[in-house]
Amino acid sequence: MCLAIPGKIIEIEGDKAKIDFGEGSIYKANVSLVDAEVGKWALVHAGYAIRIMEEKEAKETLSLFDELLQ
Amino acid sequence: MLDKFRFRDREYAEKISERIKSMQVNARFMHVCGTHQDTLVKYGLDEIFSRAGIEIRQGPGCPVCVTTPLEIEEGISLAKKGKTIATYGDLLKVPGEKDSLLKAKARGCDVRVVYSIDDSVDIAAKNKDKEIVFMAIGFETTAPSTANVLLKSPPENFSILNCHRRIPPALKALMDMGEAKIDGFIEPGHVSTIIGVKPYKFLSEQYKIPQVIAGFEPIDLLMGVYMLVKQLKEGRAEVENEYKRAVDPQGNEKALEKIDEVFKPDAIEWRGFPIIPDSHLSLKPAFESKDASVRYEDELSELKHKEFKEQRGCRCNEMLRGLITPQECPLFGKKCTPMNPVGPCMVSFEGACQIEYKWKRKV
Known about the structure:
- The complex is a heterodimer of chains A (70) and B (363).
- Chain A has one helix at 55-68; strands spanning 5-13, 16-20, 26-30, 41-45, 48-53.
- The longest helix of chain A is centred in the last third of the chain and has 14 residues, at 55-68.
- In chain A, strand 2 (16-20) and strand 3 (26-30) form a beta hairpin.
- Chain A is elongated, with a radius of gyration of 14 Å.
- Chain A has 70 residues and is of the alpha+beta class.
- Chain A has a 5-stranded antiparallel beta sheet.
- Chain B is an alpha/beta fold and 363 residues long.
- The radius of gyration of chain B is 21 Å and the shape is globular.
- The interface between A and B is large, with 33 and 53 residues.
């Protein structure tokens, strides 16, 4: 239930967006809860994008780890 | 894109686990998310932690598991009375008193599995002659999708059996009960994507308990535990956020607005728990017409004051309160397996028993 999977937004049509989860898996998700933009990454849970994710943020997490482990 | 494999990097993992060990803290932490449990057991982190003196228990963090027999029986009862029940797949095998929705389906009831609430609205739109009841389960992660649908005037023949629950009040209930002896909470990443950091703060203030919001890759969990141990060692009790790449301090404001428009906090029973104040997201009066328990009140009245017995020997209730591990249940792997589950913790992909069975199968 709490599982959410990141995928890339490839097309937006109204409330729905086509999202590419990789390896040919493309699924339509509802994007009413986020500010969707083609080309951005969305975290999708039960058919709804719940957050837009930035590559920068993932890198920041890793650098935070480096910092904490210093 | 997310440099996924660095979040599974062995060298990183070893470095963090060494750090945890070197702090020599013995503690018991609780998480409340099936996906955390899966990462914990699948990657053998539970054994790494155990060698470092850290024990981790899964609490009531599986929406399917904490749904009560009454809620399941309501779904079954409506299905038997000719309604079409739509819900997430995990719920189908969960036993009510005797039956499950899956058994009802096998007997000819119209029970459908959907991936999203939107799919059940489509079913309603395409089948005007049928009455569709969506069993809305899930925590704050899932509730915004239900709110979104109800705000968009779904078809007349669509209603929901509302089983949405809130995590922070359940954590408070665990602390008040005091039986699980918890030294820190690993907070669920995707619930937190929606609610943010603030709703957990009162727990640290009131109970002096450290909390870390963590993601679901092995490094996330290791890091989350490291941050908790560090708080204990330094005598701090705060809410920290390890999962910054998916959790903003303020949460998802759009989603929270929708939740506020549609729901209000109310008391509800959880499987294994007494009634927990404020832990239900109950529908505001404006949405009563979409509430299946109101719409079908007469048809459900026979269940209202019924007492439901738990399955004999099943210790799911204690599991959900963090009191025992799957291996401590005498039914585990013997009478109770994923093919023939006795209790919800063996039914759900997020239940501690099914996860233990899947990855370890030590019986």
